[in-house]
Write a structure and sequence with these properties.
Elements: H1 5-17, H2 20-27, H3 31-45, E1 50-53, E2 56-59, H4 61-89, E3 93-99, H5 101-107, H6 112-118, E4 122-128, H7 131-139, E5 145-149, E6 157-171, E7 187-190, H8 195-207, E8 213-216, H9 220-228, E9 233-237, H10 238-243, E10 247-248, E11 255-264, H11 271-281
Parallel strand pairs: 3-4, 3-5, 7-8, 7-9
Antiparallel strand pairs: 1-2, 5-11, 6-9, 6-10, 6-11
Helix pairs in contact: 1-2, 1-3, 1-4, 2-3
Length: about 290
């Protein structure tokens, strides 16, 4: 049992006056209430801290030891309260942002520079994982803010839409046979573990245009780079593909994505989290500059 700061404050006054009646009067509570507070302290400490006699009270050896530490305990508690309130009312502290590496490369460079310069007491740690895992980490409070694709709704989550994206087939500027979806040599570069990729592969198979050759990787950046260097046809989100000046294949199957920022509902009143979320949302009104 941890003693309350109120009981410790009362104890300091009792130790100063060595009289329960006068201490109660000074504090502004009844003597029975003060007596109960001292009894709670003795229960918390596990031994007697006061010796009662006709003229008042005196401190036991344990009481004198408690007196040495009580002021420090109260000062530490004041510091803890101050820092706790600061985390709610001020933009400061350490926060984890979770997102897929590809999402991070597109969004975060446009957000974090201004944010971290504006708030020097803000510390950001990035954690990269799949959108599904990031969502789970926010629910269990191991990540503070997530930028995820197609988040699953959950009663503990606050979800705000950022943007739309579209996954489809892309090619570079070359004219190789491996870049021609209708060629027997067509090569498809993709991450087969992504739900979106699986959906597109099923559509290609149903249409009879699924290439027999696959080059697989779990990095969208590698897919984009290989596609840009004419190594085959890439299955990519439009935002990544456009940054590499890739061209969409006409009439290719696609999959629509929704990119969202989310956080745990218990963090609604944390000013820093709200500021970070709002900074991320502002990217919608400030699109990246087109490549010259």
């Amino acid at each position: 049992m941890i003693p309350s700061s109120t009981d410790l404050t009362y104890f300091l006054e009792v130790a100063n006056l060595l009289n329960l009646s006068r201490a109660a009067e000074t504090i502004g509570i009844s003597q029975p209430s003060l007596t109960l507070a001292m009894q709670r302290l003795e229960t918390a400490v596990g031994t007697a801290i006061l010796i009662r006699h006709k003229r008042g009270v005196s401190l036991t050896k344990a009481g004198k030891q408690l007196l040495l530490h009580a002021r420090k305990l109260l000062q530490q508690w004041d510091t803890i309260k101050s820092e706790t309130l600061a985390s709610v009312h001020e933009v400061q502290g350490s926060f984890k942002i979770g997102c897929h590496p590809s999402v991070a490369l597109y969004f975060l460079p446009r957000v974090l520079g201004d944010l971290l310069e504006s708030y020097p007491d803000l510390e950001i740690h990035l954690k990269h994982d799949s959108s599904r895992k990031v969502t789970e980490q926010i629910i269990n409070l191991s990540v503070d803010i997530g930028i995820v694709v197609n988040p699953v709704k959950h009663p503990d989550l606050v979800i705000k839409k950022l943007d739309d994206d579209r996954i489809t087939l892309w090619k570079g500027q070359g004219q190789r046979a491996i870049q021609d979806i209708h060629s027997s040599q067509a090569l498809l570069i993709c991450d087969p573990d992504l739900m979106q990729t699986q959906a597109i592969l099923r559509k290609l198979k149903k249409a009879g245009t699924l290439p027999s050759r696959l080059l697989t990787t779990n990095s969208l950046e590698v897919i984009a780079e290989l596609t840009a260097n004419n190594c085959g046809i890439g299955i990519l989100p439009e935002k990544i593909a456009r940054s590499k000046h890739l061209n969409p294949l006409p009439k290719a199957p696609n999959y629509d994505d929704e990119i969202c920022v989310l956080y745990h509902g218990s963090n609604r009143d944390i000013k820093a989290i709200q500021m970070i979320v709002e900074s991320i949302r502002k990217i919608l009104t400030k699109k990246p500059k087109a490549h010259q």
